[in-house]
Amino acid sequence: GAVVSQHPSWVICKSGTSVKIECRSLDFQATTMFWYRQFPKQSLMLMATSNEGSKATYEQGVEKDKFLINHASLTLSTLTVTSAHPEDSSFYICSAVSGSNEKLFFGSGTQLSVL
Amino acid sequence: KNEVEQSPQNLTAQEGEFITINCSYSVGISALHWLQQHPGGGIVSLFMLSSGKKKHGRLIATINIQEKHSSLHITASHPRDSAVYICAVPTRETSGSRLTFGEGTQLTVNP
After folding, report:
1. Range list of H helices, chain A
2. A28 in contact with B at a CB cutoff of 8 Å?
C-alpha cells in the first residue's frame, strides 16, 4: 500500500542551526503534502500546505521564513527549520494525499530537540 | 472554521470491553477522518467516511451528517489497541484535505 517516508525520526541540534526534514511518498505521486506540528499532549496543528511546483501556503501565525518548505517533485517535500531555537522543539509530521479519493497517509514524524 | 470536540479525553478499559469514542464538529463536511497515533508518534489513517458506517476488523466508524457527529467503536478491545485516537475534519467546508484535528482520546486497554 501507499507509504509516506519521513526522515529523520529524531534530531538534536544546537540553537541557531538549521534542520531539514524530508517527506517522501514512496509509491504514489503527491501533488499536495501537509506539514504539522504537535506539542506534547496537544493536537496536531497544520503549519502549511505544500504544493508541488508552487509556493507553500502557510497557516496564520507560521513564519514562512522560519519554516521553509520545498516541494520540488511529486514525491518529495522538505521542511527546513531555520535558525532553530529551543521553542521550536516539537514533533513534526507530514501527510500526503493519494489519488482522487483523498486518502491520507502520514509520515512517521520527526522529534526535534533544540538545545 | 470547523471546531472539533472529542470525548472522552482519556479512556481506560479492560481487555475485551467494547469501546466508543465520540466526535462532534461544527461545520458541514465532505468527509471525516479517524486516525490512530501510537506512542512513538506515528499516525495511521483508520477511516475516512462521509456517510453511514464503515467496518475494518474490530473497528467500526459511524457518522451522522445531520447531527454533525461521528463515533469510533472498538469491539473486543485488546492491549495493542492502546493509542491516541484522533478525529479530523476539513477546516472549512471547501478545504478538502486541509484538516482540523480533535485533541484526541487516549485509550489504554489493560490485560
Report:
1. none
2. no
